[in-house]
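In line with agreed milestones, the collection of sequences with tokenised folds has grown. One record among many is set out beneath this paragraph:
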Amino acid sequence: MKILVTGASGDLGRDLSPILSRYYDVITTDIRKPDNNLEFIRCDITQPEDVKKATKDIDVIIHLAALLSCETSNPFIDVNVKGTCNILEAALENNIKKVIYASSVWAAARGGNFPYLPIDEDIPCKPEGMYDITKRMGEEFCEYFNRLYGLNTVNLRLCGYYPVEGFSDNGDIMWDKVDLCALVGRFVGTGPSYKITNPWDLTQAFKAVIETDTRPNDTFIIGLGAPFIQEDAEELGKSPLNVIGKYYPGAAEFFKEIGLEVPAINFWYTTKKAEKKLGFSPRFSLNDIMEMYYSNR
């Protein structure tokens, strides 16, 4: 199966493509060549002809390419909106089997402005910044191309990707190198909260989407979900360790031992849909990490 990865020189594409190539024939594309030996096609997604050429004889497109920050609005529109439309148009013309769109949880909202918790795929969308708005527009265009033309699209709302030091290429924790506080903190809202921690998990998420028949234009939150429920919200904002201990017995003692301070938790995500429909969850849970820590001490 031929997989085209756009934005292959970015943080996600750089780490995703090499591991994905263990399973598929991966072709990378971007405006500059990534630092690997995979097949590369130079492509500016704002140029329709570039995109049409790059997507010929491809089975699945993983569309990662996006502009994350800019001082003005027009570049966001050119790359994140028009570029995504170019991908969808080319996918339709070239009979692509599936387009996997890397969206963001920020396409819904950010911060604590949510009508309920945990945040799921059905949360009403009120994007704030230009990046957020254009990511939401990308989702809307995926829905449009699916509804009108039957193009097979899937939206992945990523909680983000920020690798933690200390993981092997096979997703194993290297206990002599891992930044344990950074890793554990992801599960409880410290640092870059709930973001995917390593290339292995990132790749397995996309692999699960490639291999799963999903509903038309389905949407999945991908990241480190939390088990908390709406009724926990008030206490999580005041005494988070009391709540965390209900779901992760011994967590307070563990956090104290490794020197992790847990702030008030004001929002969190559920990833149950991805677990149920895609069979995907990060390789290690917080309970797994605590158990392995005490075994490796």
